[in-house]
UniProtKB/TrEMBL annotation:
It comes from the Bacteria. It comes from Streptomyces gelaticus. This is SRPBCC family protein.
Length: 143
């Protein structure tokens, strides 16, 4: 298993951060691993919604089918995904209001036989991608 996380303070209210975080049409503008939604993002963001995403992890393309498992508007979005080679993924986006700013934390988890072979490299690559994604997300919102 490989677990990754990143956190950033964004100078905007949680509702504004949430609106950008869940704007799937603009996902590629901030998410460093995202390449496309072959069938579009989820039509309605709700529990059990599923959608497919093409990603690039450690330089390799990956197709992931996501399911929304936790959802609390402007606070929490958790998705679980099935990727190639039996890899399972989980992503948890949590927003904590702090005055006129918001602390955004992303926690990711990768499990499966293929992960154990490259856990260290995957952890480094995914952590760097999360940090970059939060930087870009903050830039879009405060700009």
């Amino acid at each position: 298993m490989a677990e990754v996380s990143a956190e950033a303070r964004i100078e905007a209210p949680a509702e504004k951060v949430w609106a950008q975080l869940t704007d799937f049409s603009a996902y590629g503008r901030w998410n460093a691993t995202h390449t496309s939604f072959p069938k579009g993002g989820p039509e309605t963001l709700e529990l059990s919604a599923t959608y497919e995403e093409n990603m690039k992890l450690m330089g390799f393309p990956a197709e992931v089918t996501w399911t929304v498992t936790e959802l609390e508007t402007a606070r929490l979005l958790t998705t679980k995904g099935k990727g190639p080679m039996g890899v399972n993924l989980a992503m948890r986006y949590s927003l904590t209001p702090d005055g006129n700013a918001t602390t955004v934390r992303i926690d990711g988890e990768f499990t499966g036989a293929a992960v154990s072979l490259m856990a260290g490299k995957l952890k480094d690559s995914a952590t760097a991608a999360l940090v970059e994604s939060l930087r870009k997300l903050g830039g879009l919102i405060t700009a």
